[in-house]
Amino acid sequence: MESLCSALPGCRGVGLGISPAGGDGRPAAAVGIAGPLDVAQWQAGDGPLVEAASGDAAVVCTDLATDPRWPGFPRPEGSSGLGVIAVPSAWDERGPALLTAYVDTAHGDVGPEALAVLDRHEPMLATGLGVVEYCADELVKADEMMAMMRRRQLIEQAKGMVMGHAGVDAEQAFAVLVRVSQRENVKVRDLAGAMLARAGETAEVPAAARAAAERLWLALQS
């Protein structure tokens, strides 16, 4: 986690939490200011972290002090100019792992490039968390671990397709997928599955994701 924070310009803290289906979220590990901020959001039942836990897409906030969302979360002192990225694990449909990053926007940003940095570190962090929870017999079972790995594999393959057709690196390719998923309001993993389905691989994905993948594919060909 220290490695992730050092790779993210302006980073003031990184947190990793657990949000099992039907259960209360809780922190698992943190560095910097992420510790108290993650705990405060879980306790309040509101905030960017809690919102990310209830959905499937990254939640981004450019200024925690002034963002009108999350009225149930009292803003702590020093939150002015503090950007937040809260990312549910891309592996599991229930999003058991939540990764948060807190960024001083005077020295960094919370845009697609920052999301790509989180994506580069997320597999190792979420895998480690999953193994710990599996060993503790609390959250992730063997079949769920396999499903998580499959979803991660879909995203990695879709990134490879974007890299091959757009001539970009892995971080830029993931940033493309994130931008398209946010613009089209589809999950990144569904978009990835639709891209692979278009390339001939079997995948069950929503119609909206298939349409988004078709538009992205046409853009990559132009």
Number of domains: 2
Distance between the termini: 39 Å
CATH topology of the largest domain: Beta-Lactamase
Mean pLDDT, to the nearest integer, reads 80
Strand content: 5-15%
**What's the Cα radius of gyration?**
17 Å
Count of DSSP E strands? 5
Based on the coordinates given, report the CATH architecture of the largest domain.
2-Layer Sandwich
CATH class of the largest domain: Alpha Beta
Global outline: globular
For CATH, the homologous superfamily of the largest domain is named as: GAF domain
Class by SSE composition? alpha+beta
How many helices? The count is 8
Residue share in helix:
40-55%
The order of strands across the largest sheet is 2-1-5-4-3
Low-confidence stretches are 90-95
Taking the sheet with the most strands, its summary is: 5 strands, antiparallel
Helix-strand string? HEEHHEEEHHHHH
Polypeptide structure, described:
The relative contact order is 0.12. A 5-stranded antiparallel beta sheet has the order 2-1-5-4-3. With 222 residues, the protein is an alpha+beta fold. Helix 4 (112-135) packs across helix 6, helix 5 packs across helix 6 and helix 5 packs across helix 7. It has 2 domains: 2-135, Beta-Lactamase (2-Layer Sandwich), CATH 3.30.450; 142-221, no CATH class. It is globular. Helix content is 51%, strand content 15%.
